[in-house]
Amino acid sequence: MALKRMDNMGIVVEDLGATIDFFLELGLELEGRATIEGEWAGQVTGLGDQHVEIAMMRTPDGHSRLELSRFLRPAVVADHRNAPVNALGYLRAMFTVDDIDDTLERLRARDAQLVGDVVQYKDMYRLCYIRGPEGLLIGLAQELG
């Protein structure tokens, strides 16, 4: 049996509304919101009795999704939001944009901060990392040519 696709990437946040607004500004679409709770959910995650608000965000091409989660129960136990680029574990999501300068301008209005510089890699890409809502690390890439 072969792998079919990657369905989504999950990000745990404190302020679900502000994070949704940020990713809407980036260009993702809100696919839906829901509350997840019950015995079945705890069996999947191993967390037991849980209560989570989620929002599913979809890229415009429909191929990728982010699942944003706000845990009401149990309490969040670790915080990796401000980990540096060389930290172990899942680190960032990278998005391809049409115009990196315009995207940065729009996201700065939502408190995004440039991590380093916008750099050009050969004649192929302009790239940068930003810190978005709650310190989330986001990569932006603009294809050139």
Describe this structure in words.
The protein is α+β, with helices and mostly antiparallel strands and 145 residues long. The protein has three helices and nine strands, in the order E-H-E-H-E-E-E-H-E-E-E-E. Strands 5, 6, 7, 8 and 9 form a five-stranded mixed β-sheet that branches.
Give the helices and strands, then pairings.
Layout: E1 9-12, H1 16-26, E2 29-37, H2 39-45, E3 51-58, E4 65-73, E5 92-96, H3 100-108, E6 113-114, E7 119-121, E8 125-131, E9 137-143
What's the count of strands? 9
Major sheet attributes: 5 strands, mixed
Low-confidence stretches: none
Large-scale geometry:
globular
Q: What is the N-to-C succession of helices and strands?
A: EHEHEEEHEEEE
Q: Please bin the fraction of helical residues.
A: 10-25%
Count of alpha/pi helices: 3
Average pLDDT for all residues: 92
Strand-pairing-aware structural class: alpha+beta
Rg from C-alpha positions?
16 Å
Question: What is the terminal-to-terminal distance?
Answer: 38 Å
Strand fraction: 35-45%
Provide a short characterization of the protein structure:
The chain has helices at 16-26, 39-45, 100-108; strands at residues 9-12, 29-37, 51-58, 65-73, 92-96, 113-114, 119-121, 125-131, 137-143. It is an alpha+beta fold and 145 residues long. The strands form 2 sheets. Strands 5, 6, 7, 8 and 9 form a 5-stranded mixed sheet that branches.
